């Protein structure tokens, strides 16, 4: 905020010379600076025109959030995580612990916050104008996209177990090394018999790749996924909820895109450079 005030103050001081220092565009009285554009170009590796368009869209989006009083709190996030946990047949605390071992948990929470913010805005501006997906819609989607619902029948892995996380980190850095304190075992998992935590990890690990290191039963564990064998298509009833979410997200996204195109028409945009 201090930087923004300083930029505006300096711009006013040079107005007599016919310049607005650093300000490229003003959108509904909020500025986008040349520095903002340069940063966006570097961050996304895009052209100046694309960067400016991206920043204008982002500013209009944030203005709409403010106008409609959209916010997401910790309770919203916890409720969403509880649903994710249930979908993976885990308790919320188990799921959170597993996510923390797999990725940056703060980044995970931030991505959820953005998603929920987006959903709240859509519901606010749509006002019931988005058609709800029916059973027929979901069945058509299922029949046309069965490849999305394939799971392996069996998964062949090499399992590594150690008392120390650092020992597995050494194996990960140099898979050819023999570490006497690391127990190594070849295992063939039947997909429908895997416990939820292990299934989540294996589903998110590609063939010929190592999983992340995770804690379980007082030890540290890691898998090398050698092969995922066989193909099973999950039954419609098992994936019905996720299909509904996919269809509705697509319809909501299309509605929001059209909504913002309309907003751009009435947006007051002043271009200085």
Helix-strand blueprint:
Blueprint: H1 2-13, E1 23-27, E2 30-33, H2 34-44, H3 48-67, H4 74-87, H5 92-102, H6 105-126, H7 135-144, E3 150-151, E4 154-162, H8 165-173, E5 183-190, H9 196-203, E6 209-210, E7 214-216, E8 219-229, E9 232-233, H10 236-266, E10 269-271
Antiparallel strand pairs: 1-2, 1-10, 3-9, 4-5, 4-8, 6-8, 7-8
Walk me through this protein's architecture.
By secondary structure, the protein is of the alpha+beta class. It has three domains: 2-67, Porin chaperone SurA, peptide-binding domain (Triger factor/SurA peptide-binding fold, Orthogonal Bundle), CATH 1.10.4030.10; 74-129, no CATH class; 153-230, Roll (Chitinase A, domain 3). Helix content is 54%, strand content 18%. Strands 4, 5, 6, 7 and 8 form a five-stranded antiparallel sheet that branches. The chain has a three-stranded antiparallel sheet with strand order 2-1-10, with helices on both faces. α6 crosses α10 and α7 packs across α10 (236-266). The longest helix is centred in the last third of the chain and has 31 residues, at 236-266. The radius of gyration is 25 Å and the shape is globular. The protein starts with a helix and ends with a strand. Mean pLDDT is 86; it is low at 1-20.
